[in-house]
Known about the structure:
The complex is a heterodimer of chains A (316) and B (330). With 316 residues, chain A is an all-alpha fold. Chain A is built from 15 helices and no strands. Chain A has helices at residues 2-29, 34-39, 45-55, 61-73, 87-122, 127-140, 144-158, 174-208, 211-218, 223-235, 237-251, 255-260, 266-275, 279-307, 309-312. In chain A, helix 5 runs antiparallel to helix 6 (127-140), helix 6 crosses helix 8 (174-208) and helix 9 packs antiparallel against helix 10 (223-235). Chain A is globular and about 85 Å long. The two termini of chain A are 14 Å apart. The model of chain B has no long low-confidence stretch (mean pLDDT 87). Chain B contains eleven helices and twelve strands. The A-B interface holds A 210-212, 214-222, 225, 229-230, 233-234, 307-310, 313, 315 and B 56, 58, 85-90, 92-94, 96, 98, 101-107, 115-116, 119-120, 151, 153-154, 164, 167.
Amino acid sequence: xxxxxxxxxxxxxxxxxxxxxxxxxxxxxxxxxxxxxxxxxxxxxxxxxxxxxxxxxxxxxxxxxxxxxxxxxxxxxxxxxxxxxxxxxxxxxxxxxxxxxxxxxxxxxxxxxxxxxxxxxxxxxxxxxxxxxxxxxxxxxxxxxxxxxxxxxxxxxxxxxxxxxxxxxxxxxxxxxxxxxxxxxxxxxxxxxxxxxxxxxxxxxxxxxxxxxxxxxxxxxxxxxxxxxxxxxxxxxxxxxxxxxxxxxxxxxxxxxxxxxxxxxxxxxxxxxxxxxxxxxxxxxxxxxxxxxxxxxxxxxxxxxxxxxxxxxxxx
Amino acid sequence: xxxxxxxxxxxxxxxxxxxxxxxxxxxxxxxxxxxxxxxxxxxxxxxxxxxxxxxxxxxxxxxxxxxxxxxxxxxxxxxxxxxxxxxxxxxxxxxxxxxxxxxxxxxxxxxxxxxxxxxxxxxxxxxxxxxxxxxxxxxxxxxxxxxxxxxxxxxxxxxxxxxxxxxxxxxxxxxxxxxxxxxxxxxxxxxxxxxxxxxxxxxxxxxxxxxxxxxxxxxxxxxxxxxxxxxxxxxxxxxxxxxxxxxxxxxxxxxxxxxxxxxxxxxxxxxxxxxxxxxxxxxxxxxxxxxxxxxxxxxxxxxxxxxxxxxxxxxxxxxxxxxxxxxxxx
Lengths: 316, 330
């Protein structure tokens, strides 16, 4: 198992390096002169040149990458030239919001998707299965801004059950905090469950054709045990992958949902950085989010081994 | 005499296919007494596995089953799901062909053994564990205690089939159906597995159905044999009677297709030429007629019914049974 973890981790290092290079290039290749952005159109050419020299912008690209990477490896992702905040501070401030949103959304999505998938697979081709597969397809094609607006209209405007926008930290007011998160998390979850359901449903249907399921029936096991113990675990590898990708994606915040519900998460930080051309923040946040994504997927790889003993023992 | 343990009465199985209905099992009657062994022999696609699935009520959802399967006084075809579930694994057990796919890859061997025991017998976890160890030892698994925590992929094919047999035996079934139990195994392991099944059968006094394409597998092990072709039983007899004097040309051809030690090297095997008829298009006459070297006019016109031979209990379905005089020891 230790060897397995170490082997998988070796793959992660080059991926992270590639990620850092790409993030750096994206930020550097954006049109517009950073010095010009900072100083504005009143700046003299001398001032611009001086600032470029100070920031190292006159150095060749590879040198700038290596010096930036050197700083990054020492934990210095730079400082916003607008707010003076370091990237790490800005992210540390926002990330709890995005993580909470991600966890709630994923939890609700699984809560809806997994039981539906099992119910559909147990009677594949039946009326319920066909209805749910159709509904999932419909939900999948619904953009989140539309879901968000519909949910706000129903639960905030009409029923007055939940606040439409806003945020209080969990530490100050736990219940109030959760109330603010219900609608955004539900918006995301409504986009997540169709994928979860479809993936798990089709894997379950395939698993239920296996010989070992026929044997489980021949052993006289209860249908619930066959579904949940014999069929669910071997069917959940793709589900874990999809969940991992979703988590990685939501970790970076969701630009649209966070903006609509006025949640101060990573997504809003990114939107702000893009509007104000705060390239240091943009570059740093994208790098951190990408790293988070890679690490979540590394954890997913580890989960495969937990789910399937053949991977653990290097047989598959 | 008491009623047989298992009676298959007029069982037919039809599977809908895009090319029309496929008659996998065509009105079969068979019976088996407690403690006895029945061998069902036939080539691939003859319906022997479908027949066993019909007994187990494990047919594909779309399959249409007619007839009765009386087991221990109950008709399995009409039994409700819950009572059937209580019967399966307890009184009615099965060993499938391929032990590589019949054990769940993500559950430990211990879990797969103990769940059956705990489902049907009122044993707590430690008693179920003790029984599992006992069973693994009985089927010849060394160090059974360590095996409990292992997964199927950590065992060899022969080992897995022994584990599958241990699972089948776990609740002392009255009937064990072994569906090609050695086909997926190395030749060297086959005899061991068959001997194990025979030994445990005698010890536990259970009835057994061995399904195989290899007459040699059941020759010395079954009390009675049923030869199937194109979904029908074409010859049925106590094993010694069948080998002494087979009537059905198909049975003869099956026997001839077994390689023998005494034949000279490089002698071609007398394989049965041609293929079984398309089961979606039943023939008017005998299903074997197109491949039979004894076939004559009538064979293509009408289906021969099972009729009794001189020996008691020997039935065959043929218009031109092999006579002793013309029997060629091919």
